[in-house]
Design brief:
Structural class: alpha/beta
Helix content: 40-55%
Number of domains: 1
Number of helices: 18
Radius of gyration: 21 Å
Distance between the termini: 43 Å
Organism: Anaeromicrobium sediminis
Protein name: 2-hydroxyglutaryl-CoA dehydratase
Pfam families: HGD-D
Strand content: 5-15%
Shape: globular
């Protein structure tokens, strides 16, 4: 484990400091030293670690998990886990207004690292019955809480309403493990307009109760969080713009994917850390492009709904066949400020403005635009096919695309264990695509 952590920038003192937490991490995922050594060798294959910014981000993810283990054991702060997805303005306000609570995404990060770094998602990955499609991420959360080595948090926050299961899992964990569950969810359509009145009331009351702050204090803090989130979105948009028209590929999709989780998770001092990492990545990417240090020349250009967070191999398989995923429709959103007098509109509606969470015809138009803007040869549907908001109408979108000749269907559930056994399926698909080009 020491070698892998050193690749990401941990020094000897930090490794000694977190030695107990590192040991706990290994036990949770049943990691042997031989397996960790293999993963350390694969790091440079799955990620371009010549980017210092990527090493910094991976180090922050591990540090978040280790630090939370320590906080829970020390008991000096109540550690509250947020259930993804959630606008990180919410944990940001809590962390800013009170020192008694620590709000974190380490639960999600642990599940993410299990797959993307260690390829042992099967240790905690959930699997639902065939007759009942379940979200593998939520099943993984349930599995994790039954792990004897996992340190359970002091509370769970659930927010937003385009996931059918997330609040139910929170309630189940409260019943099974006695962990307080704070539910800010209302299932009433997937658009912000359908939910904003409920969210305004629920959020204000929740944040005032959790922090002891006044309504004015909560709103002032939300303003600060919103500005930070906007700056993060603008930087992510800049990265996509840099790669938009280039015929060559300078960065793998694994890097794009991991950078975009900065919109999902919350780290301590999140905005400063996220902005520093993203600004450095922009500088490093520009240097690579200036020096023409591309990793693929004129590849088959692929867009997708959403590559799995739990597996770094998919992107690698594409690259081995001179194909490159250059954009995901899930990551694309409108980064511009919202002209609204309401801070709640400005904080929350950007999270609902991801184009794949809009209505059917809007999704169809958006994917056609992506195919044109990114000069795509192929667009892959099928990821998250079990999800109400993201998966239910993918075949309808395919059938109505202006560029339907470029549409392919790859059935993969991002968080299911069985979704990882797809190498042969993926290689067969790439061969079919190459024959039709």
């Amino acid at each position: 484990m020491k070698r892998l952590l050193k690749q990401l920038g941990f020094n000897d003192e930090e490794i000694i400091l977190y030695s107990n937490e590192i040991s706990r991490f290994q036990k949770i995922l049943s990691l042997t030293e031989d397996h960790i050594e293999k993963c350390a060798k694969n790091l440079n294959v799955n990620f371009d670690l010549s980017f210092k910014s990527i090493r910094m981000l991976l180090k922050e993810l591990f540090t978040c998990v280790f630090s939370d283990f320590r906080k829970i054991e020390d008991g000096e702060q109540s550690v509250i886990q947020i259930a993804i997805p959630m606008p990180n303005a919410i944990p940001g306000v809590v962390s800013q207004l009170t020192e008694k609570l620590h709000v974190s995404s380490s639960e999600y990060i642990l599940i993410y690292l299990a797959g993307i770094i260690f390829d042992v998602y099967h240790q905690i990955g959930g699997e639902g019955p065939n007759h009942c499609k379940r979200c593998g991420l939520n099943l993984s959360r349930e599995t994790l809480y039954h792990n004897p080595f996992y340190l359970k948090p002091n509370g769970i926050i659930t927010c937003l309403g385009y996931c059918d299961e997330i609040h139910k899992v929170g309630e189940l964990l409260e019943i099974e493990h006695g962990i307080p569950h704070y539910n800010l969810t209302q299932i009433h359509g997937i658009t912000y307009e359908n939910q904003k009145e409920y969210l305004k009331t629920a959020l204000t009351g929740f944040l005032m109760e959790m922090t002891g702050a006044s309504e004015e204090g909560v709103i002032e803090s939300l303003e600060k969080m919103n500005q930070g989130n906007l700056e993060i979105n603008l930087l992510l948009n800049k990265i996509q713009t840099l790669t938009l028209k280039s015929p060559h590929v300078y960065v793998t999709f694994n890097e794009i994917s991991i950078l975009n989780i900065l919109n999902l998770i919350y780290l301590e001092d999140h905005h400063n850390k996220a902005k520093n990492i993203l600004k450095l990545f922009v500088r490093e990417l520009k240097e690579k492009m200036k020096g023409d240090a591309y990793i693929m020349k004129n590849p088959i250009r692929i867009g997708c709904m959403h590559l799995p967070f739990t597996n770094a191999h998919m992107d690698r398989i594409f690259r081995e066949h001179n194909a490159a995923v250059v954009v995901s429709s899930m990551y694309a959103s409108d980064p511009e400020p919202i002209p609204s007098a309401s801070i709640f509109d400005r904080c929350l509606s950007p999270f609902f403005r991801y184009k794949m969470l809009t209505e059917l015809e809007d999704k169809r138009r958006f994917i056609d635009k992506i195919i044109e803007d990114y000069s795509l040869d192929v667009f892959l549907f099928g990821q998250f096919e079990n999800d109400r908001a993201l998966g239910g109408n993918q075949t309808l979108i395919m059938e109505n695309l202006d560029h339907k000749n470029k549409a392919y269907y790859l059935s993969i559930h991002n968080w299911q264990k069985m979704g990882l056994n797809h190498s042969m399926k993926l290689e067969s698909l790439v061969e079919v695509i190459k024959e039709r080009m």
